[in-house]
Amino acid sequence: MMHRSPFPRDLYAELSHLQREMQQAFDVSPSIRGMARGFPAMNVGGTPRSVDIYAFVPGIDPATLDVQIEKGVLTVAGERRVADIPEKATVHIDERAVGSFRRVVTLPDDIDPNAVEAKYRDGVLHISIARKEAAQPRRITIQ
Amino acid sequence: MNNETAMNKETADITNPADSARNEAAMLPPVDVIEDANGITLYADLPGVPKDKLSLHVEGGNLSIEGELALDMPEGMDATHAEVSLPRYRRVFTLSKELDADKVSAEFNQGVLKLRIPKVAHLQPRKVEIRVA
User: Fold this and answer.
1) CA distances from residue B119 to A68, B40, B104 in whole angstroms, order as listed
2) Are A88 and B49 in contact (CB < 8 Å)?
3) pLDDT in tens, B31-44
4) Do B34 and A121 touch (CB under 8 A)?
5) Could you give the ipTM of this predicted complex?
6) A61 and A122 fall within a common domain
């Protein structure tokens, strides 16, 4: 099934549509929150002791970032402003994200929402959430 | 098939060994480019790149921006979801001749690079007078 863009000569729209269709075709279980693309880009990883989330939000005052954990879901929200464009200037390329943003990540069940650490360095927000004691691997001594 | 591989190898050898990083896959950082009467300002988003891992080169009329990511990851971390999946950014721009490549100034702060490329002094704006005969 191929949708047609209202302006058939817009090659880029066609290509991005095609890309989306391809992704949907290959992604076995797409997330209910969509294609998971947008600003900020996010990486999620984990160790037996923690769950680590990296949000790539360059050039932001960390005090203006809103990070919340509620009902097993982590939300990162904020607003990004870019420098004012001086009068009589021409914008040739305009690709960087501007304005307010919000991204949501589902967390695993075994995390401890009270043991969260958040750091902002080099434009990356790193949130580390400890897993609950009970969920951590333990060596059992045999008597 | 064999010929092709040999040829690729040859072209790779010709390039400067210092440029070998150019053959590695990289992400394209988003940029804003704004031009005013005296020059061009470029902003690039390179989150995750520390100051010492950013390299800027102006060579043969090309401006190249390259940065390597350094995230502090806990030992033995498994990535479960990665949108930033390559360890570097790279982008190359062709500069035009009215830009003064020797006077590029750069600031890098919290993953945002700001470059200012002034125009060559004698090419800065002058109002053209129109005389009516």
Assistant:
1) 47, 8, 10
2) no
3) 999 999 889 999 99
4) no
5) 0.74
6) yes
